[in-house]
Amino acid sequence: MPRSLPIRIAAATEADLSAVAELAGVVWREHYPGIITHGQIDYMLEHGYSHEVLMNFVAEAGAGLLLAYAGDRLIGFGAYRRVASADELKVEKLYVHQEAQGQGVGSRLIARIEEAALAQSLASLILNVNKHNVQAIRAYEKNGFVIRESVVVDIGAGYVMDDYVMAKRLSR
């Protein structure tokens, strides 16, 4: 992918959800083997990228699903929602196609999610990242996130997410 191609960020609509799920499958199947099992990849894609799950980011107040395009090609997305018990916005999903990584796409998505948090008068962003996903951890640190805690979350079917919770305080 040419590095000079401008990136456009747009809010997703219901019509975009199948393309988001398709891109998630491509990214996950390329990136996560060696970090989690193929069975867990399939399980998490099935449960995290259904039409109903993705639609919540489009329809829920305080939530959003942002799409990153290079020309007409979807190359990344970020999803977020409010944390009910805190003054935080949670980055639930942030993925960029391998061919577009290292070009600032993820940083642009994070910046737009920060804008959404500030518009809701929230003080910080949080996210979960697999403890062995070194590439993502470094990218989040580059964008101002720090590790807040270590968690192990049972997600069903004998699978767990062995994650760090990372946080970024926002400037108002």
Number of alpha- plus pi-helical segments? 5
Question: Low-confidence stretches at least 5 residues in length (pLDDT < 50)?
Answer: none
Tell me the CATH architecture of one domain.
3-Layer(aba) Sandwich
Query: What's the average pLDDT?
Result: 95
Q: Report the CATH topology name of one domain.
A: Aminopeptidase
H/E element order: EHHHEEEHEHEE
Strand-pairing-aware structural class: alpha+beta
Sketch the major β-sheet: 7 strands, mixed
CATH class of one domain: Alpha Beta
Distance between the termini: 36 Å
**Helix share bin:** 25-40%
Q: Per DSSP, what share of the residues sits in E-state strands of 2 or more residues?
A: 25-35%
Strand order of the largest sheet: 1-2-3-4-5-7-6
Molecular structure report:
This protein is of the alpha+beta class. It has a domain at 7-123: Aminopeptidase, CATH 3.40.630. It is 34% helix and 35% strand. A seven-stranded mixed beta sheet has the order 1-2-3-4-5-7-6, with helices on both faces. Strand 4, helix 4 (105-119) and strand 5 (124-130) form a beta-alpha-beta unit. The longest helix is centred in the N-terminal third of the chain and has 15 residues, at 17-31. It starts with 6 loop residues before the first strand and ends with a strand.
